[in-house]
């Protein structure tokens, strides 16, 4: 059994949380972006992005076989895809805005800053939790090396 | 990685199939222990080199996550600790033998 399995599992989670943090930052940064892309010649605002994670299962037979040989327990995590939130855009009355429609309303991104802030804290805490798990694994291995000292 | 240095060598230092009556030469024994130790040191070296490469790419601003760097360093540190413990045991055993009255 591999001694540093726990390290690799925690490391994959750290990478995933970092990625989630990047996506949340992108949502916050684009909270006022009205021109993300064009659809039929019309500007469409930025759509909120959400990260989907999945367990890091081996995809090939050789990997699966190797894991079984090593007695590998548990699996890491990876980001499977980033989906776009389909909830409706916010309508803000602002007739002076260049992207306002004939009634003076502007479509703003469906990003809710409060929600993003909560997600941000959640990602930070998840990162911390994984660092703690990693440190616990390291402490365990260090203790094992102290046997017989 | 650290797992390639095992507490019990993958190949027993003294072949388990050899019957006790069949004398195993001291030179042979030393050679197999030597190869085991060499392999462990090689692995350690490779790991240090890996950390070094990561460090370099981090410093010149390539896309390396900070945690990748620190985790690689931790792995190398634990490998070193393991190697030191194995060395301590080996030297202890050697000194014990050398203290023998002839």
Essential attributes:
heterodimer; A: 149 residues; alpha+beta; two-stranded antiparallel sheet; 6 strands; 19% strand; B: 102 residues; mainly alpha; 66% helix; 0% strand
What does this structure look like?
The complex is a heterodimer of chains A (149) and B (102). By secondary structure, chain A is an alpha+beta fold. In chain A, 46% of the residues lie in helices and 19% in strands. The two termini of chain A are 24 Å apart. Chain B is mostly helical and 102 residues long. In chain B, 66% of the residues lie in helices and 0% in strands. Chain B has 2 helices and no strands. The A-B interface holds A 1-4, 7, 10-11, 14-15, 18, 131, 134, 138, 141-142, 145, 148 and B 1-3, 65, 67-68, 71, 74-75, 78, 81-82, 85, 89.
Short description:
The complex is a heterodimer of chains A (149) and B (102). Chain A has 149 residues and is α+β, with helices and mostly antiparallel strands.
Helix-strand blueprint:
The complex is a heterodimer of chains A (149) and B (102).
Chain A: H1 5-29, E1 37-39, E2 42-44, E3 49-55, H2 61-70, E4 77-84, E5 90-93, E6 105-108, H3 113-145
Antiparallel strand pairs in A: 1-2, 3-4, 5-6
Chain B: H1 26-59, H2 66-98
Helix pairs in contact in B: 1-2
């Amino acid at each position: 059994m591999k001694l540093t399995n726990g390290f690799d599992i925690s490391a994959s989670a750290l990478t995933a949380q970092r990625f989630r943090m990047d996506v949340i930052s992108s949502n916050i940064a684009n909270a006022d972006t009205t021109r993300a892309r064009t659809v039929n010649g019309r500007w469409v605002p930025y759509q909120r992005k959400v990260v989907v994670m999945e367990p890091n299962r081996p995809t090939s037979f050789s990997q699966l076989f190797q894991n079984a040989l090593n007695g590998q327990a548990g699996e890491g995590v990876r980001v499977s895809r980033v989906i776009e939130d389909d909830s409706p855009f916010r309508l803000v009355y602002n007739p002076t805005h260049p992207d306002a429609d004939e009634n003076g309303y502007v479509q703003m991104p469906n990003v809710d800053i409060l929600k993003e802030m909560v997600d941000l804290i959640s990602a930070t805490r998840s990162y911390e939790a994984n660092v703690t798990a990693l440190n616990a694994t390291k402490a365990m291995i260090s203790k094992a090396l102290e046997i017989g000292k | 990685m650290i797992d390639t240095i095992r507490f019990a060598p993958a190949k027993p230092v003294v072949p388990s199939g050899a019957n006790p009556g069949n004398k195993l030469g001291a030179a042979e024994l030393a050679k197999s222990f030597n190869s085991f130790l060499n392999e462990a040191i090689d692995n350690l070296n490779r790991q240090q080199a890996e950390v070094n490469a990561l460090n370099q790419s981090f410093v010149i601003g390539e896309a390396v996550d900070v945690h990748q760097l620190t985790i690689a360093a931790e792995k190398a540190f634990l490998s070193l600790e393991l190697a030191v413990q194995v060395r301590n045991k080996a030297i202890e055993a050697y000194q014990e033998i050398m203290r023998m009255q002839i």
